[in-house]
Inverse folding.
């Protein structure tokens, strides 16, 4: 089902109400972030790609890649990875050419299985040398006054 109007969200460390995430792995421990609905012109607006439901874990990844977002998202889809949110040039000091993803997973085992599929993907093997992950974090969360 396609929505008439896309929804946008921003990842902040402020006091906004929304999906509160606490880091459980990654370089930002301990860290708490909030994902809240925002307008398209918010400086950190990320478009909702798919409704996320109620997953237990989220992974935040930022890629710098010459392969482009479309190719990365195709690789992700073949591996069963469907980002909830995606945005461009939002992190790592706002460098251009970066693509940021917030990806829901039901469990750490589901996450591990999906990333193994990416590692085995032939297209990923070809573009891996032109792509780098500049930030990664795994978060668990709870929803506060947010309709997903």
């Amino acid at each position: 089902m396609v929505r008439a109007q896309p929804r946008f969200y921003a990842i902040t460390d402020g006091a906004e109400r929304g999906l509160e995430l606490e880091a459980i792995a990654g370089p930002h421990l301990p860290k708490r972030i909030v994902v809240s609905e925002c307008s398209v012109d918010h400086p950190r607006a990320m478009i909702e790609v798919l409704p996320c439901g109620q997953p237990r874990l989220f992974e935040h990844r930022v890629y710098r890649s010459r392969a482009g977002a479309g190719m990365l998202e195709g690789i992700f889809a073949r591996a069963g990875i469907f980002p909830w949110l995606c945005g461009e040039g939002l992190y790592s000091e706002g460098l251009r050419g970066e693509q940021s993803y917030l990806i829901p997973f039901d469990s750490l085992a589901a996450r591990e299985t999906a990333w193994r599929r990416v590692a085995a993907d032939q297209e990923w093997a070809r573009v891996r040398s032109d792509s780098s992950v500049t930030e990664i974090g795994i978060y668990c969360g709870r929803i506060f006054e947010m309709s997903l």
In short: The chain has a mean pLDDT of 77. Residues 62 and 134 are 5 Å apart (CA to CA). The longest helix spans residues 108-120. Strands lie at 8-12, 19-25, 32-38, 46-48, 57-65, 85-88, 98-105, 131-143.
